[in-house]
Each structure stands twice: as C-alpha cells, then as structure tokens.
User: Fold these one by one.
Assistant:
Number 1:
Amino acid sequence: MGAVGYAGYARPADLGNGVVSDQVADMIRQFPAVTSLPAGAWRPGISAVSAAALRLGIRALVFAADHQRLEVIDQLIAVGTPVNEADAEWGRLPLHTAAASGRPASVRRLLAHGADPSLRDTGNGRTPLEECQPGNRYLDSPAHDEVDTILRPLTQTGTHGHQPIDKQARSPE
C-alpha cells in the first residue's frame, strides 16, 4: 500500500495521482453500505465499519480540497461523503480548508456540491470567507483574493458577523 504515509493516512502528495482514487474505490468495494447511506446516517446508529469509512472519506475530502484535486472531491461526494462535516481528528472543514489555502477551484467545486459558505468552524468560529483574509491565510497568495471574490457575494455583510443569504436566492436555476 504505497499511499500510506504518516499515521496510516494517505500522504497529500498521493492525492490526484490515482493512489487515493484507488483507495476510495477499494473502500467502496469493501463497504458497499457507504454508497447507500442517507444524509446524516454517519451519526449514531450505523455500523462501526461504515462510520470509520465515512470518517476516512471526510478526511480525504479535506485533503482533496486543500490540494485542489477536483476529481477526488467529486468521487468522494458521489459515494456519500458529507461536504459540510469536519474531520473528526483535526476539526477541519473542506470549504474552510480550501479557502484558507487559497484554492479557488476547490471552493467552486465544493460550493457546487452544496458546501455551506455561512458555516462557522467550530474551533475558531470563522467562516470560509474569514479564513481567506490576510492573517488567517495559509501561505498567502493572490489566489486568496480569487477565493474572496467567490465567497463574498454569498454573504450579506462581508467578513464580520455576516448572515447567510437565502440559499434559493443564490441558486442560478
């Protein structure tokens, strides 16, 4: 298993090169119930195996968002990985991580999959928009400004104390 890195998890360098995608496919084959769980089913009442698979899926989604691996994001969400759940060990949310790292393609993709831009991080209380602001950014880059441009219209008052806009109002349907 060449993808096992630190603490038994996939290394970030393995994302997008087929290794993690293969691991996701193996997980699906081993735990077929994961693909049929309804939203919210990763909470109490599911088997320990299914819960573990979903925890790993959430962690993989955070890594994929951080490294802008769009195909991996799509695959994980397609098998039922919740887009608005934090990684159980690190408390990282996919959209927040992508915003803090200046990953505009990941931000767009996660939003298209229903990520909530008004959700506050339980650890630091920040929204994704607040994560991409100077002082909160990880490795400051011009891409953070693009992330800001994507997220700012989805909030009413900007970076402090904003309230979410009615989700129907921002759907381009």
Number 2:
Amino acid sequence: MCGHWNDYLCTIEDHVALILVNLALADVAPMEGLRRLVTVRIPMRTRTADGLTSDAEAETLDALESALTESLAPHVHLTDPDSPDADAPEIHAILVGRVICNGMRDLYFYATDGRDWDERIAQLLEPFPGYELDIILADDPGWEAYLSFLFPSPRDLQGIFNREQCEQLEELGDPLTQARPIEHWISLPSERARDSAITEVTRLGYEVRGVTVEESEDEEFDCVARGEESGQDAHRDADAAGGVHTFFRVHLAHIDVPRIDRIEAITAPLFDLAERLGGEYDGWQTSVESGAAEGGPTEAREGS
C-alpha cells in the first residue's frame, strides 16, 4: 500500500477497535471524482476476547484483504498536488483505511462508483471458501468518513508519531536504554497562557530553553482564536485580521529515556497542558545514543 499508513487503538460504541489509516491522504482529501464511499465488511470466523483478529485467522484475512485491494484499487500512486502529472493514470478507487472491531474487518474505499463491486468481489472469493462479504455504499463527497471517523484525533495522532519516532531511533541502532536530553515545543496563544505554561513545566522539572514569538497563516493552527474563545487575553498583531496569527512557542527540555513503553507518559502532561491553555503540543526530538548515526537528532512533531 502506498502512502503513510499507521494504526491506533480506540473504542467504538464501547468496543475495542484497531484503525489502520493512510495519513498521507489528509493533504489531498477529498479527491475529486471519488465521491462514493464503499465499505467492504468481512465477518471474521474467529476473534480475540476483545473482538480483534485472532492469530489463527490473521494470515487468511490479510491475504483476502490484499486480493480485494489489488483488484478494486490497484497500484494507486498519489502525485504532488502542487505539481500535477498530466500523464498520471486516472484513479477510480482508493483504499483509505480499515477498522477491526467487534468481530468485523471493514475496508473503506472511495470510488467513482462501486455498484459493480458485488460481482467483482464474488470472483475474488473463490480462493477463500466460507467467507461472505457485505458491501455498503454511501455518498460522501466531502470524505467525512475518512476525515472525521478514520483519521486519528490529535491525541491519537501524537501517539502514532511517538511510536514512529521511537521505532526510528531503534532502526538507527539506539537500544533506548540511555537517558538523554529530550526537547519539546509548545505553541500558546497569549502571554498569559505562555506564563502559565512556563510556571507549570518548571514545577514539573522541565528546563525552559527559550521562548519565541512566531506567526502563522495556517488556518488549522488558529491558536489565537481558540485562546480567545476560552477566555485567554490572546496576543494578536496588526496583521491578524488578515489571517496572520501571532503565537508563542516555548522550547523545553528534560532528561529521560524515550522508550516506546514510556514516551506516552512523557508527552501526555505537556499535551494536556497545551490543550488546557488553548494551544498545541508541537512534538519532541532527541539524539541517537548508539550506532553509526550517534548524536544526530530525530524528531516527532505533532501534525507533521
């Protein structure tokens, strides 16, 4: 599968769910022409106690999903939206995610149509006797299912980036056993929020390495507006009315070990603090402490 795929655990109607999603599609969603949401539902024969895939069935289900994807949405390669390739093949369907929950594996596609998928899927099922799939069609031109259901929340997205960052360190030869400085950044909408954050992180034992005043034209990062809505005395420069927002970025550091089983506990208090003050936690970076690339920084920035 092409793109930036990753998964995360959550709950759906009180059931444990594992959602796999192509994060890269957030930059291009919704894609023109792919207005039809096609959900292919695979009832699992066996399941774990929490309703997820059992080891006994995983290999068969993976093979079935691969066959479905290769036939229904084959070899989709996204072009740079800023540099369209006139020779790029037209995309008729694309897989955007999968949900495993309560004994079901649901594959989510966006397609130009999908009304003939029953016949196509029936042919694909011949090597997989005993499986009966359901196909659910819906009009979704704005890709709400992808953007509002499959795509992770900011907290879940930070958890994905945390895991990817630790895995990258391990790939570079870092055993993740040695304590080292870990740097963090928080963006805040006002002087009051900045001062409150500095007081709180100092109490938690962080070193404040610096504060910068920055501007953003990104509509997704309207930290100022959210600060005003929550009662903060938001700092706004003369250009803010035209869409340029001024905010404060606080640079922090502390000594710790960035292990996969610990990194959530490291980042969660900072994430919660930034959210409470109407800002955003911008992620972390640290150095590689072992292997050929020792000493080089790696980073996991929220939203990047």
Number 3:
Amino acid sequence: MGTLYYKVERKDFLSAQERLVVAEIVEKHTTNGELTSLVLDGSGEIFSFEEANSAPGIILEGSTQLPMGLFPDDIDDFILVVENWFDLLSEVRNRITADKWSVVMGDKRLHWNEGNNKYEKPK
C-alpha cells in the first residue's frame, strides 16, 4: 500500500496546452507548504508525472511513495495527503482525454466514481 502508481494511455501524445494543464494541476496540489511538510515528514515523495514519449501509447505515468511514516500515529494527516493525490489525479483525468487510465495504490486499483468524476479509495 505504500506507493501510488498511475498511467495514462492513448494514441496521440500530449499537446503543448495539455502539458501546461497537467503542470498547473500538479503545481496547485503540490505547493501547499503544510501538505509538503506532511509528505516529507512521513517519508513520502512529492507528486510528479513523467511524460512518457518513449513507450507507444503511454502519455503520462509515474509513481509516488506515500508518507507511510505518518501511519498509524497521524492517520488524519496521512488521509489528508492521500486524498490530495486522489483529487490531483481526478482533476487530471477530468481535463485530459485518454483511452485508458490506471491508478493503483499498492496492489489495489482505485475506483473511478462516474457519478462525481472522482477517484475513491480502493474497495
């Protein structure tokens, strides 16, 4: 459960505008000083995407180490960080058209709620 993996697939590479949109979303969700401190204090990693120009069909991918050092003593802070990453991924999915999305936490696939267009914790 300690790592969040994500991959986005489609035929066409990201446009310049889409790269800008992704960068803005990532910046919005990673420049909060309090969240950054929680992530780093919990031995986590700051969220990032790698634009995958080398693999055909993969336009974005990456992984982020969750701040397991916060767990279980600071469970509320851990949940705050994880929900922020879910919100970030949800916002990207809602703004970037793709054929296939894969978001996995540990060995559990995150549930995409079609009703509210948002990732939810694994079931």
Number 4:
Amino acid sequence: MSKNKITIPISQCLNLKTAETKALIDSGTEGKFVDGMIVNWKNIIHLKKPITVQNVDGTYNEMGKIHYKTKICYNVKQNQFEDWFYITKLGDQKVILGLPWLKQVNPNIDWLTGRVSFPEEQSINDELEGEELEDDETDTYLHTILKEEELDADANEDLETDHLWI
C-alpha cells in the first residue's frame, strides 16, 4: 500500500471481468467509478444524458463523457455491496469509491495506518439475501436487475449535476 493513498481489496465481483481487484478510497471523488477495461459489457446501462468528467488536475477525462453505468455486486471483508458505478477510464486504478460511498457506508478509517474497518452489525444493500445463485443464473439475475432499474439509471436521478470530478 502506498503511504499516499488508501486502497481496499474487493472480491466476488459480479459484472466485472475479474473476481478480485483493489478499490481506491477517494473522498474528493464525486461518485463510484469503474475502469471500462474490467467491465463485463454485456450488463451495462446507456445513460440518456452523458456526464462530463474532469480529473483532479482540471483536465477532462481521456475517455470523454460518461455514457454508461453498471451495477456491481462485490464484497469488502464480510460486507456485501450492490452499487451503480459509472464507467470511464481510470488510469492505474480499476475502481474508485468516492464520497457518495463513504457517506453511504461510513467506514472507520485510520488515516495514520490506512486501515479501513466497518461498524459492527452493519447491513448494506440487503437485496441479495436468500438462496445463492448458480453461475449460469448470475447473468440472468443481473440482466433482470438491470432491466428493472433501467429507467432510474437512465434518468441519472442520483445526480444533482451533469458534471463530476474524479
């Protein structure tokens, strides 16, 4: 781990090309982002209104505007999450968990050691409760979830702006 950034391992990632990766925790980022190189492009939603993205240095993102988002199911330690991520180019990062994630989860962060922990008995996004899906049912499940939430995702209702900072 770099002394200048905090990353956490995420695992059992559904809707990504990899089952495990690292996520950068970044309180200056205005969303949850995933690099397009690791996204399973079969399960994406096209946004009605593209989102302009600027990097922290003020330059526009190399990929241009964001046109897609995807729902990713993943684990951090013993906590299960299911969140929408905007797809863009992230450089040397694969996943960025920004301020909206920090507000939603409110993890305990030891800024001196870089350790991230979660409050006890925290339940996050309980939508995946019930029986586990077989591998061949996962794509069908994700496709169903994406279709059910397509109107909400297309409207970008979770944004107060059409411009985000990474």
